[in-house]
Amino acid sequence: MNTYLDLEKFPLDRPDSPAYANLVARCKSDMATHGMFNLDAFLRPEYAQAEAEALTPKMDSESFNHKRAHNVYFKKSIPGLSEDHPALKLFETSNNTLCNDQLAGSVVEKIYTWPPLQRFLAEVMDKPALYPMDDPLAAFNVMRYQEGQALNWHFDRSEFTVTVLLQAPDEGGLFEYRTDLRTADDPNYDGVARLLAGEDPQMQQMNVVPGTLNVFRGVNTPHRVTPVKGDRARMIAVLTYYETPGARFTQTEQLGFYGRTA
Ligand SMILES: O=C(O)CCC(=O)C(=O)O
Ligand SMILES: [Fe+2]
């Protein structure tokens, strides 16, 4: 994996080293303060670019165009919220997705299934262990956003999400987020409505270099990707792990996100 990953800077393969302990401590601290952490250029940028190019023909011919209007919950209705509540405002999303069953042999698959990464993430996230999903579609994806495409405001299904940026666009395609807008006990619908109206001063933007591994707690932190501008697409790998083995999407979720069931 040292070919692809910068294991000198991020010694995930040396869990007994002091450098590893330092890295875990830094990531825990970033997670506690910002709800996310980054390993800059963890996937060496030349391999990130090569992976983006290698996957482009498949993206052109086989990907699912995830295009729909949705609210921040990806649900039709929320018990106790009237249909016209501004927290349920609909937004357009469009991007193209390749699923894990279309990514056999890819570098993204190698990273997703590499046990030291799972162990490292578990340690940073204070979990006894983390497991890959047992879902042929939702375990890991590569998403492409071309000119005008975007992923609109949403909360994630999983507690946290791991991404690796493969290719950055020339303009737009920015990741925007609002840390801890809700909690497990307080859905904060008025706060959600404020954010969606563009009136939350605590919204932030993140800009990362290609190859960066980002981990963010997206279950209570709404986030979006702004529309891409220009000819260069934004391409990103999304890796999902759970605390229990065997996690799967429901058929309804598979259909909604990937246009098919498997
Ligand atoms: O494209 C990204 O940076 C974010 C992807 C994301 O939020 C998701 O897949 O849930
Ligand atoms: Fe997300």
TrEMBL record:
Pfam families tied to this protein: HalD
Domain Fe2OG dioxygenase: 135-245
GO molecular function, one term: metal ion binding
Keywords: Iron, Metal-binding, Oxidoreductase
UniProt family annotation: Belongs to the iron/ascorbate-dependent oxidoreductase family.
Protein name: 2OG-Fe(II) oxygenase superfamily protein
Organism: Litoreibacter janthinus
